[in-house]
């Protein structure tokens, strides 16, 4: 029985060490740059500013302002996502998020659903690099490479 208890304690200690940096709990903010595609605007440069709070290593919430400009059209959206994280090891996490937001584009504005998926590389406890795909309220597809600072 003692061996089983000691083995369990050791396994839990190793598991918590492996996920020490996974989806750093607390507030963060960052910037993402990349490209996007919209059926109405074609492909073009995109960028976004984001801020969020991770409640623990598995769940967080994120707000973002995205800008996409193509073929003379400018598309902006403000979104809020609930994000779920899957820690792979100490450095890498997969994530997916769903939410909603408000989009502004040439023919008007509207509310709608949004979704995201990607991978985090935790450089250290204060910084991470992020590769992310977003399907925005304005039906634009964005792929960004970004960096986040964790407060």
Topology record:
Layout: H1 2-18, E1 26-38, E2 42-54, E3 59-70, E4 73-87, E5 92-105, E6 108-122, E7 127-135, E8 141-150
Rounded to the nearest angstrom, the radius of gyration is 18 Å
The percentage of residues in β strands lies in: over 45%
Give the proportion of residues in helices.
10-25%
Helix-strand pattern, N to C? Answer: HEEEEEEEE
Characterise the protein shown here.
The chain starts with a helix and ends with a strand. An 8-stranded antiparallel beta barrel has the order 1-2-3-4-5-6-7-8. The protein has one helix at 2-18; strands spanning 26-38, 42-54, 59-70, 73-87, 92-105, 108-122, 127-135, 141-150. Mean pLDDT is 81; it is low at 4-21. It has 1 helix and 8 strands, in the order H-E-E-E-E-E-E-E-E. It is elongated, with a radius of gyration of 18 Å. The protein has one domain (2-150): Porin (Beta Barrel). The chain is mainly beta and 151 residues long.
Task: Give a quick precis of the structure.
The protein is mainly beta and 151 residues long. Helices cover 11% and strands 67% of the residues.
